[in-house]
Amino acid sequence: MTAVHADNINIKQDPKSLEIRTLAVERLLEPLVTQVTTLKAHVWAASVEQATDNFLEDRDKIAKESQFLKEELVAAVEGVRKQGDVMESAAGEFVGGPSSPATRGNAVRAARALLSGVTRLLNLPDVTDAYKLLVQLKVVEDGILKLGNAGTEQDLGIQYKALEPEVDKLNIMAAKRQQERKDMGHCDPMAAARGILQKNVPILYTASQACLQHTDVAACKASRDLIYKQLREAVTGVSSAAQATESDDASQHQGREGGELACALNNFDKQIIVDPLSFSEERFRPSLEGRLQSVISGAALMADSSCTRDDRRERVVAECNAVRQALQDLLSQYVGNRPWKPSARTRPSPWRRRSLLTPHAWCTTASGTSGKRC
């Protein structure tokens, strides 16, 4: 992947890529795709020409006014203009002789080249949007650093007041970027990182204030450092999700832990509802107990964290025990309300099961085998 460098901002996104990553690019490309792929003789040729001209008129203006990737945008516009001319010529030849394989092949190749050029051009503003988001993210990152390193309470208050609107602005830009992403796998990390930034910036202010007021308390410094680390990881998460790239190992590990607990809760919630007619204790009890154990293990990790308060830890333990007991009660209800219970009288004997499965079983009597086939 080609990286774009501008003003110390490293964008890990290839401007020449044909991959459509946002819904906005998809919506802009759809009308031209419809025009190119709709065969209506001379109407088709005229509509393609009109659609290409309208598209180039807007994009030419945007390219000239752009401050980022200006050369790439101008080159892409010129490329689309040339490909549009080739497409118009091929369309005219195709309308004049639609039954000719040569003219049909030329029209298809010209259409592919035009759509590729348009896609490449539309992806450049997408890279520009990612760049603007990363610029704002850099502002927030610097503000977080200044907030954590403030030496006085007055300086701390000034830095916090300056950081608050920047975080709100970043949240709006990241939310828009999140909504436009096609890949849902990067939407959830973006939402999680946004939530951490919104929640932990005020906490960092409070923790830093406590450090300034109690310089001799090591726990205050440890709490501030932990919040600062989470904010740095959230910044990395926003950057990675905005560019559809993988974050570092720490962020992946953090997201994986949260994802595992959420996944365990979701799986347990789905499996807890069982049709009584199809309930089998041997099959469902081990599975449900295993799912619950995964949830409890994740909750235990949270409860054992150094930043978890004692009352919250006790509540987590109590709720885990309550859920475990509730599951046992529910399983007992499932077992007690089954429509039938196996008994010795209704359970077929091994000889009977064998006779049902064997086509030419030997007939049996009370004294043993009769010696003839049934």
From TrEMBL:
<keyword id="KW-0963">Cytoplasm</keyword>
<dbReference type="GO" id="GO:0008013">
    <property type="term" value="F:beta-catenin binding"/>
</dbReference>
<protein>
    <recommendedName>
        <fullName>Catenin alpha-1</fullName>
    </recommendedName>
</protein>
<dbReference type="GO" id="GO:0016342">
    <property type="term" value="C:catenin complex"/>
</dbReference>
<dbReference type="GO" id="GO:0051015">
    <property type="term" value="F:actin filament binding"/>
</dbReference>
<dbReference type="GO" id="GO:0005912">
    <property type="term" value="C:adherens junction"/>
</dbReference>
<dbReference type="GO" id="GO:0098609">
    <property type="term" value="P:cell-cell adhesion"/>
</dbReference>
<dbReference type="Pfam" id="PF01044">
    <property type="entry name" value="Vinculin"/>
</dbReference>
<dbReference type="GO" id="GO:0016477">
    <property type="term" value="P:cell migration"/>
</dbReference>
<dbReference type="InterPro" id="IPR006077">
    <property type="entry name" value="Vinculin/catenin"/>
</dbReference>
<dbReference type="InterPro" id="IPR036723">
    <property type="entry name" value="Alpha-catenin/vinculin-like_sf"/>
</dbReference>
<keyword id="KW-0130">Cell adhesion</keyword>
<comment type="similarity">
    <text>Belongs to the vinculin/alpha-catenin family.</text>
</comment>
<dbReference type="GO" id="GO:0005737">
    <property type="term" value="C:cytoplasm"/>
</dbReference>
<keyword id="KW-0965">Cell junction</keyword>
<dbReference type="InterPro" id="IPR001033">
    <property type="entry name" value="Alpha_catenin"/>
</dbReference>
<dbReference type="GO" id="GO:0045296">
    <property type="term" value="F:cadherin binding"/>
</dbReference>
